[in-house]
Amino acid sequence: MSNKLIEKLYHHHVLTKEELVALISGLEEEGKKLLFHYSLQTKIRYYGKKIYMRGLIEFSNYCKQDCLYCGLRSSNKKIERYRLSAEEILQCCKEGYRLGYRTFVLQSGEDFWYEEDQLIYIVEKIKEIYEDVAVTLSIGERSKELYQQLFKVGADRFLLRHETASKTLYEKLHPTMSFESRRATLKMLREIGYQIGAGFMVGLPDQTAEDLAEDLFFLKELNPDMIGIGPFIPHGETPLRNAVAGSLEDTLVMVALARLMVPEALLPATTALGTLDLKGREKAILAGANVVMPNLSPTKVRPLYELYENKICIDDEPAHCRDCIEKRITSTGMEVDLSRGDSFQFEKNKLQ
User: Where does S-adenosyl-L-methionine bind (predicted)?
Assistant: First the structure.
């Protein structure tokens, strides 16, 4: 039964909700092999063997929100907080550009210490110095006016995981946030003109196959340029410290299903997968992922950006990090691409 559903999904990029729940719930080893084969073939059909490398800069671990699973949550009083100055961020970009990166991903907690003028200055300066780079922001929910100003000065993309498409689960895990606001913000970002990224976690406490199916249907409807899917990994300074982590296999299945349901999207092989398994990122690439994000943050602050525990690569210098991940990519038979690496649908829309 699973194989028939996988064949249908491969050829038509959609199933009914009942079929998708049945597939998620009943997938066995033989079915996984077929699923991963088709998801990789779909990735190659749209993107060839290219794996895009982005330079990640985690510039602040302050966060006003109090999400139950996140080590950066505002209630965590044991974390040592830090903020990078505009000059430090620009220095990270300088090193990244020297290493060949042409996309910089600026990520932080929801830190309103960085006011409108500061954020605009940083983005404007990056685009002024490096005319051929893309700037991706991942800074959480801010005002429409700020989003518009950042887009106006050159920000290209915005990552904002929807986290979970289940309203009940979302509200349980995000006591300081709004389910409706999250969805509305994603649509707002798209309307402004950003290439948008959404995504979710796999293995959250009380998450069901129905919830995961809803995540995939939400992504199908939203049709984002990027989809970030990672496993839930508990952190010792959160209320979910004793919860069971999500599994590598379940996460790879969701990556593959996302590839088949939203075939034009960019899909990262997340660092969290490498934390669960030394070959986790390679396995994700072979399941249809086509983006990796080596860290350009100063090594002194990397251990402090701890969304989850036991994060890998925190001591690697940027040059070593790039070299290491490049070798991992080529070991899968894929090819490194350091260009901007815009999404298939973005490139297609430019031609229309």
Answer: 163, 182
In angstroms, rounded to a whole number, what is the distance separating the alpha carbons of residues 230 and 246? 9
Instruction: Give the residues of the chain that fall short of pLDDT 50.
Output: none
Q: 163 a known binding residue? A: yes
Q: Is 182 annotated as a binding residue?
A: yes
Nearest to 141 by CA among 163, 165, 118, 169: 163
pLDDT of residue 264: 97
Both tokens assigned to 29: 């080893």
Q: List pLDDT tens digits, range 261-280.
A: 999 999 999 999 999 999 99
179: tokens are 């389910």
d(CA 245, CA 207): 12
Q: How many domains does the chain have?
A: 1
Token digits of residue 302: 């990397």
Whether 191 has a binding-site annotation, put simply, is no
Cα separations (Å) of 195 from 46, 141, 192, 248? 17, 16, 9, 28
* 92 marked as part of a ligand binding site: no
194 closest CA partner among 145, 115, 136, 118 = 136
Q: Does 95 show up as a binding residue in the annotation?
A: no
Q: Which helix (H) or strand (E) holds 347?
A: helix 344-350
pLDDT at 174: 98
* 3-state secondary structure (DSSP) of residue 176: coil
For all residues of the chain together, what is the average pLDDT? Answer: 96
* Range(s) of the domain holding residue 216: 2-350
If phi over 0 gives left and psi between -120 and 50 gives alpha, with beta otherwise, what is residue 117? alpha
**Per residue in 105-142, is it b (16+ CB within 10 Å) or e — as a string?**
bbbbbbbeebeeeebbebbbbbbeebeebbbbbbbbbb
Look up the CATH number of the domain holding residue 84.
3.20.20.70
Is residue 93 annotated as involved in ligand binding?
A: no
Cα 215 from Cα 166, distance rounded (Å): 8
